[in-house]
């Protein structure tokens, strides 16, 4: 097909019932049209869907890579995590051993009494209040009243904080009493009311 054949090509001369008689220019145009239609349909029916699938697969690949990197980082630190978890478990067991059991409450009162005597204070009273349940443990408040000088009371608080059992001190109230400290004439006698709390892990017998 040359430029002269395209120049002489007239659409009105085409006989659609006898394509074999078409001029070369008409046949070339028809072939080009058919080829374009085939290419378009092939892309639309096959390549287009596969392109969408490829994009979806690439997105999935990126997501899987991110998940793999996170899991790989955890796997690298797994040994350290296990050691840390064991340390936490050991610390927890140590704390549990410091919580007095129900049959050790009387011993705890004795320890508080010894702390007062050792500090030079007088333990006026010490009594248990009702147990209170928290989320993972129960607390047992102990209402305490001691008398003594300023330094003696401070020593008593220090001794209680060093008891082998877990005991926390709350609600300090100090007032001036009648009389003087026996061991320190001229020093006013102080009265301290304080709440000591000890704890029991859930699951233990009350």
Describe this structure as you would to a colleague.
This protein has 206 residues and is an alpha+beta fold. The protein has 5 helices and 5 strands; from the N terminus they run ααααβββαββ. Strands 1, 2, 3, 4 and 5 form a 5-stranded antiparallel sheet that branches. A hairpin with a 2-residue loop joins β4 (167-181) and β5 (184-201). The longest helix has 53 residues, at 24-76. The model has no long low-confidence stretch (mean pLDDT 76).
Please state the second-level CATH architecture of the largest domain.
Answer: 2-Layer Sandwich
Radius of gyration: 46 Å
Number of strands: 5
> Would you identify the regions where 5 or more consecutive residues have pLDDT less than 50?
none
Helix content: 40-55%
Query: What distance separates the N and C termini?
Result: 107 Å
Can you count the helices?
5
Give the integer mean of the pLDDT values: 76
- Overall outline: rod-shaped
Q: What is the domain tally?
A: 2
Q: Spell out the helices and strands N to C.
A: HHHHEEEHEE
The structural class is alpha+beta
Specify the CATH class of the largest domain: Alpha Beta
How is this structure best summarized?
The protein has 206 residues and is of the alpha+beta class.
List keywords for this structure.
alpha+beta; Alpha-Beta Plaits; 2 domains; five-stranded antiparallel beta sheet
């Amino acid at each position: 097909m040359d430029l002269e054949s395209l120049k002489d090509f007239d659409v009105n001369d085409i006989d659609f019932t006898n394509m074999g008689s078409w001029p070369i220019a008409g046949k070339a145009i028809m072939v080009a049209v058919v080829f374009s239609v085939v290419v378009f349909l092939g892309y639309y029916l096959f390549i287009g869907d596969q392109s969408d699938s490829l994009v979806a697969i690439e997105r999935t690949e990126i997501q899987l890579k991110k998940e793999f990197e996170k899991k790989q980082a955890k796997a690298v630190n797994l040994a350290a995590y296990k050691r840390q978890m064991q340390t936490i478990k050991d610390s927890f067991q140590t704390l549990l051993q410091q919580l007095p059991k129900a049959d050790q409450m009387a011993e705890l009162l004795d320890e508080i009494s010894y702390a007062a005597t050792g500090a030079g204070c007088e333990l006026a009273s010490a009594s248990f209040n009702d147990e209170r349940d928290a989320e993972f443990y129960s607390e047992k408040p102990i209402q305490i009243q001691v008398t003594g000088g300023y330094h003696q009371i401070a020593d008593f608080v220090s001794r209680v904080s060093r008891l082998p059992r877990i005991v926390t001190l709350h609600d300090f109230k100090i007032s001036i009493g009648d009389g003087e400290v026996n061991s320190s004439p001229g020093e006013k006698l102080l009265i301290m009311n304080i709440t000591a709390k000890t704890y029991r892990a859930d699951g233990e017998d009350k």
